[in-house]
Structures are given as structure tokens and as C-alpha cells.
Amino acid sequence: MRINTFTFQTATAVLLLVVCAELAAAAPAAASVSPLRSMAARRLMGALRTPSSGLFFRGARKGVGHVCSTMLLDEGEEVRAKQAAANTNIEPALQGQPGETIEPLEEDLTNVGGYTDQYYFRLADDVAAWRYYNASTVPATELAEKIRNTIKSPQDVAYWTYNLGRSGYFLLNMAIGYAAARATGGVQGEAGENLTNRGLSTIQGLATEAVESHYWNLKRIQEGDFKMPYDMNLRHRQFNPLFIANKMVKGAQESANVLGRRFGGKEVSTDIWFDNEIYPEYYRATFHFQTDGWMSQDSAEIYEHSTETLFLGRQDAMQRTTLVPFAKMMRERKAKGLVDASKPKVLEIGAGTGRFATFLKDSYPEADLIVSELSPYYLEEARRNFKHYERNILSDDARASMGTTRFMQAAAEELPLEDASQDCVISVYMFHELPPEARRAVVREAARVLKPGGTFILTDSIQIGDRPGMDAGIGMFEKLNEPYYPTFIRESFGEMATEDGLFKAEEKHMTSVTKTLSFTRL
């Protein structure tokens, strides 16, 4: 069945409209909403709840990709058989070209990837919630009810208003990028029709997962693990029309380029634009088919926009899960009565544009932070992000107690730091882009620079077994020029980190397609 662009955009708009209207009707007093606006919101919900609109909405949701929710860990042949049915996925990056089929996994899955985590880690409540989460079975009324139940203050209303609007903004960018790819001939013919026909189910799944991700993020905020996102502040540059226009134009260009390389049907070079023997060989590639790989300022400037477009505005919510075990570490430091309990020495390796590091610094300003990144272009972008945060967002109280922030260019497997010099080492979305031998080298290096009792936090993509319904399709991400992804999704990080007595495995958390593992240095 052919689903045109207008149809899937309209269906998605209805989803966001339902949630926003439920939100407005739920807490007019908390948000200081006028009675007139509150009445309008209720009338809107009344209209959306009519039989005809309900039939339309339920019908629109039927196209969402199936995610199997009944697999158990050791079902053997039954697991492999059901994987064949779970061959459509909410993630655009996991979708194939015409002729690319997703085959059921034939290997024994009980000792690979996420299936092994239960043997090493305490599984947090979010792990069970996401393991069998099926976006195609969640009605809009349930999403709206979940949002209502989280609203306890005007700030919570602002949180939902901001994040739903943000997801809508990235939905618009996704549509513009796809249109640009079609217009420039980067995606055409059968590949273009294939993407268009899957558009509705993809967008609906992404929107549902985004709302659920934001729900879990707010839950952790209310539990005191970290602050509200600082970029909700209207002084942030993302609310500047010129900034928005610049990102949308550059984002559309990059989306057209990436989609053309992925779905254009032509062989493309994945080498960076200059010869270089300084960087590791594995690093000298254009991961994700992004222009220039990690090796240009243009790439660094558009990276955050591109990845948030891919995940429909939920990447920040996913990576902020890293702050949950970090908060636990901070509480334990305080309970021990450490003199410098609020001033840990923290290192983020492979920090990219420093986006996560700014969230950490905003919630824990007294930490002495090293932002480490191998690409000089991305490191410079991280410095710019911090400068903007410090000049426009940082409060005077936080500034008075602010710890140091240093920027360091270094490979994560060879850090120019002394032994036992750090209280915490963090990696966010780096390990899936490392070959197996480099992963082990990075774990050993993290152990070297950590103090005994220090914390290592690894946040990255989910693996085989984390969400079993995605097992069969998850390997398709390799086709977005992720050469080390097939081995990554099978890696047992619990085994890797504990086998030489370097670490004790602690907790596992999940948010959507991201997992966070924490370890204690022995």
C-alpha cells in the first residue's frame, strides 16, 4: 500500500495534538493556563474522542512496525523463529533497501550481548519496562494519561510542552531532509518508494518511543538524579530564529547527503578527506555516512541536529540516563562523608560535541570535569557549547561553586593522565564505533586512570537481547557505515570488564534504544 507524505505527517500531527491537548486540559492551574484556553483544550479532546476521529486514529496506528513482546531468555528455537516475524523496526537506520532482507539469527543467543547482562548487573526498573515495550500497542490515551500522572508542578508542564514541541520540530526536519533527498535524486526509484511506504509506521513508532523516553527522563528528574534540561531556558540560542534557520538548512543538506549515500544504490567512499597516519585506522572513516566523518567543523556543527532528527528529539533523554548511576555515585560519596564529596574528578572520553558533558555540569557544577575527544573539530565544538552555556544559562550561584572544565585531545585507549587520578570515567555512544581490540583497550585504560572504588559508566546502543523483538533487525545499523556494530551488539561488557578483576559490574538502565551500564573499580 502506498502512503503519501501528507497522510503520515497528518497522522503524526494527530498523535502530537492528542498528547498536547490532554496535557493542556490536565493541568490548567499548574501552568497558569487561562480558563478560555483550558476550555478550548477540553473541547479539542472532546472532538478527538468522537467515534469517527477515534476510528481514524486507531486505523492510523495500525501501520506501526511489529515488536515481539513475548520472547523469554532461553526459548531457543522459539526465539529464533519469532525473530523472523519481528523484521520491521521503528528506527529508520535499521531499514533496508529493496532487496535487503532481514534474516533470523541462527546463533545461540543466550551468551551474547544483552542476554548476558542479567548474570552481571542489577537490572533497574526501566530495563523491564523497555525490554518488551511495543510502540504499536500503546494507545494515545495511555500516553496522555502517563503524561498527566507526571505533572506535579508548572515546571513539569513546561517540560512536556518543550519536549513535545521539540519532537515536532525534528519531525519537520526529518520530512524536509527526506524531501531534499528525493529532490536532489539521492533517493529515488524503488528505494524512494520503499522509504515512503514505511514512513507512517516509522514516524508513529518514533513518536511513541519519544514520549515514553521523555516520561522516564522526567521520572528521574523528579527523583532528584539530575535537573530539568537547561536548554529549556529561553536564553538558549536554539530559540533564535536565525540559529533555527541555519540548522534547518544545513540539516536538510546533510540529510540529503546521508540518505543518498545509504539508499542511492551506488558504492561510495567511506574514507575521510585527507591522508593521515596520526589517528587510529578505525577512526579514519565517515561513520554514519556523515560528510567528512569526524574531520571538519561543518560535521561537528551539524552533528547534534542530525542525530536528534534521526531519533525524533529523544537522544538527549536517552543519553541523560547516564546521570542516573552518576547520581548514585554522588549520593554514596556524600554518605561516606568524603571531604571532596561534591567535587569528584570526572573524565568523559569520546565526548564529541560535549552535549552530554554540559548536562552533567549543569546538574553537578562542582565536579572537576575533563572533556576528552580525539577530533579537534568536535573538541572545538564542545568548547563552544560550554562557552554558550556558561555565558547564557549558568546561574550566579552555580558559577560561584563551579568546578574546573578542561578540554583534552586524546584517544580513549591512550590517555595522558596519571594512574588512579579520576573518580569517574564516562563513555557515551563511543563503544559501538570501536573494533573489539580497541574496546578492551579502552576498558583497561579506564581502569588505569580510575581510583580504587571509582565509577565507570558506559552508555551506548542497545545490543542483541536488550529488546528481543529488535534482535533480528538490529544488525542493519551496520549498513549506515557502522563497520564494528555487528561485533558490538554481541559483546558481553559484563564479562569484558570483570574477567581480569578490573571492575565489579553494578547496574543496568535502559531508555528506548540506549543502555547504560555502571561498574566499580576494584
Description of the molecule:
The protein has 522 residues and is an alpha/beta fold. Helices cover 48% and strands 10% of the residues. The protein has helices at 5-26, 35-48, 51-61, 77-85, 125-131, 140-150, 154-183, 189-197, 199-222, 241-263, 297-310, 315-319, 323-335, 355-363, 376-392, 396-400, 436-449, 471-474, 485-488, 493-498; strands at 122-123, 345-349, 368-373, 405-409, 422-428, 450-461, 503-511, 514-521. It has an eight-stranded mixed beta sheet. Strand 5 (422-428), helix 17 (436-449) and strand 6 (450-461) form a beta-alpha-beta unit. Helix 6 (140-150) packs parallel to helix 9 and helix 11 (297-310) crosses helix 15 (376-392). The chain starts with a helix and ends with a strand.
